[in-house]
Design a protein that fits this description.
Order of helices and strands: HEEEEEEHEEEHEEEE
Strand order of the largest sheet: 5-4-3-6-7-8-9-10-11-12-13
Number of helices: 3
Radius of gyration: 21 Å
Shape: elongated
Largest sheet: 11 strands, mixed
Helix content: 10-25%
Structural class: alpha+beta
Number of strands: 13
Distance between the termini: 61 Å
């Protein structure tokens, strides 16, 4: 049992004793969720919260920058899964010492999040992304509750747009 518990590839298991002398063990493999660098080695975080050696060629997994505890990542992953943002669109995750996260999507758009109301914020960002033409926009700053600030590099200057979420989307230019 200790050998099974210590294996990072095992999500869960069941042991059945079949009398008189047989033991059946049913093992469910963990799902690989992300890659992370710890102590200058790249590991894979499984859905069981354990780190596995990066002996697998899984290039599509998001890469985590920063040093979250596996439980912090799993909690954040659950919030993403409960939100409208599809996890498979995520390229990188950035964890900060302040315990907040940023998400970089595969289309190279960076979503800056606060520590609070993350699911609601992700849902707002998803709705915003569905409704707005991005052009050259690369940063969606959603760290202020119910607001999205867009940085858009155009013609040599920063144009910053603020979107406030109520029942409708209101557009303001700063």
């Amino acid at each position: 049992i200790e050998v099974i518990d210590s294996n990072p590839l095992v999500e869960e298991y069941e042991v059945f004793k079949k009398y008189p002398s047989t033991i059946n063990i049913k093992i469910k493999k963990t799902s690989f969720l992300a890659r992370i660098n710890q102590d200058d080695k790249i590991f894979i975080i499984g859905s069981n919260g354990k780190l596995s050696n990066n002996d697998f060629s899984i290039k599509e997994l998001p890469y985590i920058f920063g040093n979250p505890e596996p439980s912090e990542f799993l909690n954040f992953k659950k919030i993403i899964d409960d939100s409208k943002i599809p996890y498979d669109r995520i390229k990188n995750l950035y964890f900060f010492k302040s315990k907040r996260w940023d998400i970089e999507l595969k289309n190279n758009i960076l979503i800056k999040l606060s520590r609070n109301n993350v699911k609601e914020t992700l849902d707002n960002v998803f709705e915003f992304m569905r409704d707005v033409n991005f052009g050259n926009m690369k940063i969606i700053d959603a760290r202020i509750n119910n607001q999205i600030i867009i940085n858009d590099w155009r013609i040599g200057f920063w144009n910053i747009l603020v979107f406030i979420f109520t029942n409708t989307i209101n557009y303001f230019v700063r």
